[in-house]
Amino acid sequence: MMKVLLKGHDYKYEVGELLKLFVPGNRIQFLNEKALGDNQSFLLVSSLWKKGEGVIAECGLFCGSKQILSKKLSYKDVDTLGHEGPKGIKRAIKLSIFHVLSEHFHMSPPWGILTGIRPSKIVHELMDQGMDGNAIEQQLRDDYKISREKINLVMEIALRERAILESNDALHYSLYISIPFCPTRCVYCSFPSNPVGNEKRDLVSSYLDALYFEIRETGKLLQSLGRKVDTLYIGGGTPTVLGAHDLDRLIREVKEYFDFSEVREITVEAGRPDTIDRKKLMVLKEHGVGRISINPQTMNEITLERMGRSHSPQAIKDAYALAKTVGFQTINMDLIIGLPGETPEMVEETMKDLLEMKPENITVHTLAVKKASKLKENLEAFELAQEEQAKKMLGIAEGYARQMGLHPYYMYRQKYMVGNLENIGYCLPGHACRYNIQIIEERQSIIALGAGAISKIYYSHENRLERVPNVTNVEQYIQRVEEMVEKKRIELEKQETVLTGNRT
Q1: Of the four listed, 113, 221, 256, 431, which is most buried by Cβ atoms within 10 Å?
Q2: Which secondary structure element, helix H or strand E, spans residue 355, and what is its range?
Q3: Which of 467, 459, 461 is nearest to 494 (CA)?
Q4: How far apart are CA 319 and CA 316, in angstroms?
């Protein structure tokens, strides 16, 4: 058991997330007052106090009444003042803890003190300050303790993202449409997805009616503000669970009420091969959809069955071949490494199959055990990959992706990931998904419609977002859709006031 005492600060969440890199969460106990542990427990004391105009962060590790390790950092060691303020102070606290725990456990997590999901945002912020590559790499190494391997990865990705981010302007936004239905619910899924059976068809119809209302009202509002769609992403769920007629009407409604005159990309998740047929693909193609996803997650049949996916590996190959016949030039395929029961050899077999198909995009996810998933509910029934095994799997996937001529172009991390690793999108040159970059780097407004969708209104002068979430439950969304529209209207008008003031 690792007992923790905070003195002079109350950054319990940040300290707890960092500790989980070294100690299981159920073995961390925060104390309200100093109480040295017995010989069976360790006590970690994280202290912060002022000294002159600066601050000092100190971490001590005790076993019983004996201090066995300590680390002290002042603002002279870490820039905790100036433009960073509390952010820098938190970093100093985490660094002092990281030094102690790394030495005690003889390990150094590859992402250092970072526990957030967007490491590349740090790189972009430093680029904005005019730092060159060498200076940024040194700061990532010294101030965040990121490994050389991960520094190389995040720098490569940030440099590729930069051109797309620099093309953003206040008048353009990305549009996301949520179709929260699937044929079945996979055990690892935490998205707002509802299995669709015959008894749910009326619910789907009512949902679409509510969605069309939100499309019409939000679209008219955005057009009145002179805003234009940059990218459209229809996700879920599995949007191709809808029939060809519903897909056709959905895209027609979107195009009628939103300004698509300068759209650069349209993506539709056709993730499950058991939802794909020629008629649906033709509808998408005729509407100018240039990018679709056909997501195997794995090409191992036994794992597909275990995860609740009602299709075979051959069905994936057939759906991919059909999409190429219809004429799609950019197809993404999602994989998950660390799925229960999978080995590095099984991951390699999956990558060999993808090597034959040659998709333009591959997104490699590391399994994250989410609270809302069946996997989390029944965790004891599954055997998950350990950290070193997960690292090997990720390395296999990267090796095959690069062999296929794909390079990493965006990445993000999630909580509760196997091995504390990352998700990486790979693409051929010229096939990067703009929407993926925009949603991760958070430098463009995302207007999101449908159940579980979260709009993010971007204020560029402050480099911040305001989140405007829709309710997740489908039945509540249908009943409260007018409220969802009104919430977006209020925030968009606030943003317009700021933009107008900046222009004048």
Answers
A1: 113
A2: helix 344-357
A3: 459
A4: 5
**Of 254, 175, 192, 233, residue with least CA distance to 477:** 192
Strands laid side by side in the 454-459 sheet: 407-412, 423-427, 361-366, 330-337, 291-293, 265-269, 228-236, 172-179, 446-449, 454-459, 464-469
Lookup: tokens for 471: 């309710």
Rounded Cα gap, residues 247 and 204, in angstroms: 12
The pTM of the full predicted model, rounded to 2 decimals, is 0.90
Q: What is the Cα 107 distance to its own chain's centre?
A: 26
Query: Are 146 and 114 contacting, i.e. CB atoms less than 8 angstroms apart?
Result: yes
Q: Within 10 Å of residue 379's Cβ, how many Cβ atoms? A: 12
Q: Which amino acid is at 199?
A: E
Task: Kindly report the number of other CB atoms within 10 A of residue 334's CB atom.
Answer: 18
* Cα–Cα distance, 419 to 109 (Å, whole number): 9
Q: What is the mean pLDDT of each run of 10 residues along the chain (504 residues)?
A: 92 94 90 62 89 85 88 63 66 94 94 92 95 96 95 97 94 97 67 62 92 98 98 94 97 98 97 93 98 94 83 94 97 92 94 97 84 51 66 95 98 81 95 97 97 96 94 96 98 94 70
CA distance 397 to 83: 40
